[in-house]
UniProtKB/TrEMBL annotation:
Disulfide bonds join 153-192. It comes from the Eukaryota. This is Bactericidal permeability-increasing protein. GO terms for molecular function: lipid binding. Pfam families: LBP_BPI_CETP, LBP_BPI_CETP_C. Keywords: Antibiotic, Antimicrobial, Disulfide bond, Glycoprotein, Immunity, Innate immunity, Secreted, Signal. Residues 26-249 form the Lipid-binding serum glycoprotein N-terminal domain. Residues 1-18 form the signal peptide. Gene3D superfamilies: Bactericidal permeability-increasing protein, domain 1, Bactericidal permeability-increasing protein, domain 2. It is found in: Secreted. It comes from Cyprinodon variegatus. Monomer. Homodimer; disulfide-linked. Belongs to the BPI/LBP/Plunc superfamily. BPI/LBP family.
Amino acid sequence: MALSLLLVLLAVVSTTLSMNPGVTVRLTNKGLQYGKQLGMDALQGQLKSVQIPDFSGSQRVSPIGKVKYSLTNIRLVNVGLPKSAVDLVPGTGVKLTIGDAFMNLHGNWRVKYLRIIKDSGSFDVGVTGLSISTTVAVKSDQTGRPVVSSTNCVANVASAKVKFHGGASWLYNLFSKFINKALRNALQKQICPLVDKTVAGLNPKLKTLNVLAKVDKYAEIEYSMVSSPAISQATLDLNMKGEFYNIGKHQEAPFTPAAYSLPSENNNMLYMALSAFTANSAGFVYNKAGVLSLYVTDDMVPKGSPFRLNTKTFGIFIPEIAKQYPGLMMKLLVRAEQNPTVTFQPKNATVQANAMVTAYAIQPNGTLSPLFVLNLESSVSANVFVRELNVAGRLTLNQMKLSLGTSYVGQFDVGSLDSVLRMVLKVVVIPIVNVQLGKGYPLPALGKMNLVNPQLQIMKDYMLIGTDVQFTG
Ligand SMILES: *[C@@H]1O[C@H](CO)[C@@H](O)[C@H](O)[C@H]1NC(C)=O
Ligand SMILES: *[C@@H]1O[C@H](CO)[C@@H](O)[C@H](O)[C@H]1NC(C)=O
């Protein structure tokens, strides 16, 4: 017993220690209020399904004697929830309080007495002072999606006033008392189950969270929650894994997320923090998939460029090339040597990418003759932006440094190739990378969610998207 408790504790400690999130989605009070609007519409709809059973029985009334009665076809014609409030309950979830709610019901009555006298008519009931309160617990399910449940629901009906149409006045007294009581009971019994049902009705929507968001044929991003939501007085945080994986092969990146904390801004409904870890896990995954390499050929160089990928141009800088391989076209293989590294500093997103560039002369029979191998260290600035439900980027070259790896054409001054390689990066490689980055990477999202006026800022170790949201259906 003591041992198993210890093991459980160790397991808890080790998971909490190793599980910094890569991505955090924060719901603010503004977001909660928007959620309340949607929720109240749903609850109002549910409450319309209140069903009051038929009543029938008999009652002895002097001096008439036994009166058989029945109340049937009682239905809700209107329900109003004018006053409601939602508040975060630290550590638990959301408290929903509804006050001054009302309902109007309509039904038919029928009586039979003195053996032969029958009478019937209709009635209206006004239920007022209806109050409901419940706590919505927010947790993480087995798939890492949020799941909600209503706990401690309490409903009270202050009064139910009955108004009869038709019939003798003594009937009113007969019915009013017990209709009042029966209705209050029936309503009190039904309201909380309907509230619970409304809350549970959110779960299918929460299940649409893209815990495994497909990016392309190589990669997907995992957005499952790594722990239960962190709920404070002002915010509800969903801490997610935020890691890129090769599709079908979930190998952990050889680095872990650094801890970060979100600013206490609350102008937007939602904030999403995407860590440098998330971006770097993308670099790891694409590098492992072997797609961070590119053959650059002359047809990829703009027509107007004075530099051509041939032995004539390169022969200007390295005469041995023109001498050994006259009149040949060339080809460059640019391949990432390590995983590119993304660094987020306030207002500054930089990618450090080190590549190996191998230059070949293309022989007339198609054989590639290697000329030299260069190590290229580049620092590129990333402009990151939100497009629909994606985060996308655009790179521009910052700095570049060349060094010689191997030469098959004798000694030469590497610095002389600087401008050619810079041109190749600027007009060929980076534009191709930008086409990929421009397609974007899916953000965590629920169902038919749209981002309204999203803004992205680069913070230390993460980027922060502040946005309002709108659900369409
Ligand atoms: C951005 O950060 C990188 C290092 O991470 C630095 O080299 C570069 O100068 C910075 N750029 C600006 C505009 O501050
Ligand atoms: C292709 O041409 C080169 C240079 O003329 C020669 O060295 C090589 O053996 C040729 N290869 C083939 C497969 O014919």
